């Protein structure tokens, strides 16, 4: 019989009658009396023995027990978990001697290794130092891994989705909206893993998979690590890949906002039927707009190039116009419908082209409004026109990020991915976005 002895106050005389002929007591907490007994049993060649035990950690044994846990053959009974800020409670509980299983202090204990290795480390990133220059002006640099401040988290980038706004900032097209300080690391749509949390962060801990919107004013996405605000970060379900999730930010949120807020479509399918036109339905925003619109009570007409007609049909569009044909350029619905709302994701189409295709109270929701569109917007407003042009600027909300992630998790929404590029070749992704012919989202991965 072998006994594992883990309690200080049981004497040899209590064990002895319970041992079989060659029974051993392995004493995990040997006291002087136990050493005496051990020596005595040795010198008298007793068949029953007391063996004092001292732990000697071996890497291979650690691997073995981790393997057992992984296979479900061994589990850790957890007595209690304590935040590092209340580590003294865990300490007192251990001294108390009545823990049932292990006492755990969170959040740092599992990730001390990663943290130690990041302190003062450099990371790969891409930045530009002035306006203009396109893909060739993106410089590969090594910069310090940023440190999260209050209410911020440090995230290891697993996927970044590019948007036209990223290179429009570089071109200086949004100077009044986002005045830049150089150097600037572009990119805002990031999915990754939390590696460190700043003071005051309660929602996340190291190891959490997240989706985070960095905002154009900060950028920082084209890098191995990014610092993100807790408020525009949400948990990413394991069913949704990093690339699928990253695509949802600027593009998905814009499509969602245009349909629900500007066009008044209810995505639970209630509400009266509306005819919707979606231009550039094969692009980052358009592909989500088609899928989301079809969750509502809508008839969707979509425009795209000939090569993407089958794809856009598969996303749910009811009828498709090839924008390079005369009918496509005129935006005329093949079934003769007038549009209650246009989610305008292309550029360069004038009000006079839209106007005859709109229903009485039809709206054009313009996500790239230029000066002419802003003039039309003002004109339609002051003349109380029933047909309106509505400029849209996406405003990120965490509840909408969660909503879209959940749709992907449930298989009701997907991210069409144009291409994936390693960070070491992110300039190719940048050039692809500037080219303006992406089908779905362009993704950069570490
Ligand atoms: N207001 C906001 O907050 C906001 C938010 C997000 C995006 N945006 C803006 O919205 C625009 C679209 O963004 P995105 O990410 O969807 O762009 P994108 O992914 O780069 O769009 C590319 C797609 O558009 C198609 N396309 C181009 N011109 C077209 C036309 N005249 N008719 C039909 N399809 C056309 C292209 O098809 P082909 O390859 O066949 O030509 C391509 O598949 C950009 O200007 C962007 O800056 C604004």
Helices, strands, pairings?
Blueprint: E1 2-5, H1 12-15, E2 24-27, H2 32-43, E3 49-52, H3 59-70, E4 78-83, H4 87-96, E5 102-106, H5 112-118, E6 122-127, E7 139-144, E8 152-161, H6 164-171, E9 189-197, E10 209-213, E11 225-229, E12 233-235, H7 242-262, E13 274-279, H8 284-293, E14 298-304, H9 309-314, E15 319-322, H10 326-330, E16 339-344, H11 351-354, E17 358-366, H12 371-382, E18 388-391, H13 398-409, E19 417-422, H14 426-435, E20 441-445
Parallel strand pairs: 1-2, 2-3, 4-5, 13-14, 13-16, 14-15, 16-17, 17-18, 19-20
Antiparallel strand pairs: 6-7, 8-9, 8-11, 8-20, 9-10, 10-12
Helix pairs in contact: 7-8, 7-13
Bound molecules: NADP nicotinamide-adenine-dinucleotide phosphate.
């Amino acid at each position: 019989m072998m006994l594992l002895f883990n309690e200080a106050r049981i004497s040899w005389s209590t064990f002895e009658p319970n041992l079989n002929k060659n029974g051993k007591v392995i004493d995990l907490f040997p006291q002087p009396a136990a050493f005496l007994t051990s020596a005595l049993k040795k010198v008298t060649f007793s068949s029953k023995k007391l063996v004092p035990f001292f732990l000697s950690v071996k890497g291979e044994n650690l691997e073995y027990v981790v393997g057992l846990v992984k296979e479900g053959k061994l589990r850790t009974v957890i007595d209690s978990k304590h935040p590092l800020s209340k580590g003294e409670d865990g300490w007192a509980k251990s001294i108390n001697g009545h823990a049932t299983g292990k006492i755990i202090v969170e959040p740092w204990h599992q990730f001390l290794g990663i943290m130690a290795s990041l302190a003062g480390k450099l990371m790969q990133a891409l930045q530009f130092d002035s306006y203009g220059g396109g893909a060739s002006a993106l410089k590969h640099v090594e910069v310090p891994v940023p440190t999260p401040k209050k209410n911020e988290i440090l995230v290891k980038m697993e996927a970044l989705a590019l948007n036209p706004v990223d290179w429009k900032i570089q071109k200086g097209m949004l100077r009044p909206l986002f005045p830049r300080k150089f150097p600037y690391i572009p990119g805002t749509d990031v999915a990754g893993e939390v590696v460190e949390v700043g003071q005051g962060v309660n929602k996340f801990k190291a190891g959490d998979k997240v989706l985070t919107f960095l905002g154009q004013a900060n950028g920082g996405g084209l890098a191995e690590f990014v610092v993100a605000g807790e408020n525009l970060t949400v948990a990413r379900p394991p069913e949704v890949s990093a690339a699928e999730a990253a695509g949802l930010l600027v593009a998905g949120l814009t499509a969602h906002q245009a349909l629900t807020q500007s066009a008044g479509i209810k995505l639970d399918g209630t509400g009266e039927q509306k005819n919707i036109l979606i231009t550039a339905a094969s692009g980052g925003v358009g592909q989500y707009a088609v899928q989301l619109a079809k969750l509502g009570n809508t008839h969707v007409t979509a425009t795209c190039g000939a090569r993407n007609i089958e794809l856009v049909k598969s996303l749910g569009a009811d009828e498709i116009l090839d924008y390079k044909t005369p009918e496509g350029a005129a935006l005329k619905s093949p079934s003769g419908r007038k549009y209650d709302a246009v989610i305008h994701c292309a550029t360069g189409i004038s009000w006079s082209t839209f106007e005859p295709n709109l229903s009485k109270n039809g709206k054009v929701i313009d996500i790239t409004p230029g000066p002419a569109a802003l003039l039309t917007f003002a004109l339609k407003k002051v003349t109380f026109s029933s047909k309106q042009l509505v400029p849209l600027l996406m405003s990120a909300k965490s509840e909408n990020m969660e909503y879209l992630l959940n749709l992907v998790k449930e298989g009701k929404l997907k991210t069409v991915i144009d291409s994936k590029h390693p960070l070491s070749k992110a300039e190719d992704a940048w050039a692809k976005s500037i080219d303006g012919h992406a089908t779905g989202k362009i993704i950069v991965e570490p």
